[in-house]
Amino acid sequence: MEYFTERAASHREVLQKIRDRYGERARVLTQRSVRVGGFLGMFAREGIEVTGYIAKEAPKPPRKMLDPEEERKKILESVKGSSDGTLQQVLKAVNAIQERLDTHEPQKQEELHPSIVAMEQLLEENEFSAGFIREMSNRLRREMSLEDLDRQDIVESSVFQWIGEKIKIYEPRVTPKIMILVGPTGVGKTTTIAKLAAIYGLGHKGGKPVDVRMITIDNYRIGAKQQIDTYGSIMNIPVSGVESFQDLKKTLALYEGADLILIDTIGKSPRDYMKLAEMREMLDACGHDAEVFLTLSSTTKISDIKDLFKTFEPFGYQAIILTKLDETQRIGNVISVITEHNKPVAFLTDGQSVPQDIHEASVPRLLMNLDGFKSAKMSLRPREGRASGTPSGAEYVKNGVWE
């Protein structure tokens, strides 16, 4: 992924410079006011600095909206001096345009059924996005009969099931050789790394224990290296700290015989784009054997989650690790964004204990963190002696089993 930083005297000028140099594939990440020009700090003037990256594909041109007035004029211009018969055809064409416009005029908002109003309120209380709530509301109006809408338990169970159907669970064919955790400061990456090291080192899913190594490139946060060293000492798992591409490459070669290598990354602000760009280049040393996981706190608000998805997109993360589920009962914010972006969830954490407070992600565990939906939650019953394998959201809701 190629990053850039450009400066100019004005916002328009810097955007023009970016278009001229990098073309339509340029994507802006952030901008800020800076002092440009001058000599030895004197006579500098206000300017704009923009950072961004080059996307793999250029954006598709927007579809041109139909301008009915322009279309009428074109038709009338084309038939000047024509016969009466032709004019009759023109009038028919103009009338057809008008009918199309009438068809697409916004309809008066219909009065919603009380059950739909109650469901919209429940989804809003769970902090689902406006788009997600609208989708559920439209589906209720489209698929539910008046008899079903009169029964709140049926409405609640249906929406509960539809939410479950939209959640995607990460299903690796084999355990990755290298797992990299990225994410903003304060989401619990280091603790999550220790939990993963413990469950895989002890034997994941009842399997044989694997040989685990831990690497940290978080040498900026005070105590970060000491924290992961402590975890490694307790679990008897080797830990290494690296500071450059070459350091990481050498350490990976040293750990070549290990079954699993877990990499903890820089705990920097997602707005520190230059440090994130350096980290992205360093992680190229991991090659194609690595899988990247975006670590996300369940308490993060919707707008910030969307910004994080965009910020860490250059890392090519395969799935989400959702932390701090014990700190909230409203995760509609997370479900809204991960389903909108079609991102699977790999692991869930709900406390600080290692390794107890980490679980493989599943639809029921996520649904149980919704507030309300009492009657729907009653259908979630664990089944003993469950066979291996992870059903999709739709299979889980239908079967009513824990994963």
From TrEMBL:
Record-level Gene Ontology MF annotations: GTP binding; GTPase activity; signal recognition particle binding
Principal localisation: membrane
Membrane-topology annotation of the record: Peripheral membrane protein
InterPro entries in UniProt: AAA+_ATPase (IPR003593), FlhF (IPR020006), FlhF__GTPase_dom (IPR047040), P-loop_NTPase (IPR027417), SRP54_GTPase_dom (IPR000897)
SRP54-type proteins GTP-binding domain sequence ranges: 176-372
Subcellular location: Cell membrane
Keyword Protein transport annotated: yes
GO biological process, one term: SRP-dependent cotranslational protein targeting to membrane
UniProt domain AAA+ ATPase: residue ranges: 175-345
Keywords of the record: Bacterial flagellum biogenesis, Bacterial flagellum protein export, Cell membrane, Cell projection, Cilium, Flagellum, GTP-binding, Membrane, Nucleotide-binding, Protein transport, Transport
Protein purpose: Necessary for flagellar biosynthesis. May be involved in translocation of the flagellum.
UniProt similarity note: Belongs to the GTP-binding SRP family.
Protein name as it appears in the record: Flagellar biosynthesis protein FlhF
Protein species of origin: Marispirochaeta aestuarii
